[in-house]
Amino acid sequence: FSFHINCGSSKSVTIGSRTFDGDDGVNGGATFFVSSQGNWALSSTGTIMDNNDDTDVYTVSNSSILSMPNPELYMVARISPLSLKYYGLCLWNGPYTVKLYFAEIEITDDKNCSSLGNRIFDVYIQ
């Protein structure tokens, strides 16, 4: 059993035999979303009240050229002001291999790391 998620993207991407499902249908401060195949879901909580933007779209897009394999996986990212959780649904007990792929798409040539906040990851697998 496996599933792959292209977090924040409006489209699915197939690389080799793996299809990374897009999760672009997710918007709003408090959201629960189940994938079209029903094998994964996500929940997102929180809203940014002081950004003068009422769209509640929590994605960030890459504006630089990436020189890594499969750059289409790193063009958009999902963000959340409080909590963002992805769930694998109907998984059997047993060992699994979990791979997380990240790329820096916020800091571009016109920015440096001191201009942005920290990235905090709390990965919990139960």
TrEMBL record:
UniProt domain Malectin: residue ranges: 2-126
UniProt-listed InterPro entries: Malectin_dom
Gene3D superfamilies xrefs: Galactose-binding lectin (2.60.120.430)
Pfam family for this entry, one: Malectin
PANTHER family cross-referenced by the UniProt entry: MALECTIN DOMAIN-CONTAINING PROTEIN, MALECTIN, LEUCINE-RICH REPEAT DOMAIN, L DOMAIN-LIKE PROTEIN-RELATED
Descriptive protein name: Malectin domain-containing protein
Annotated source species: Nymphaea colorata
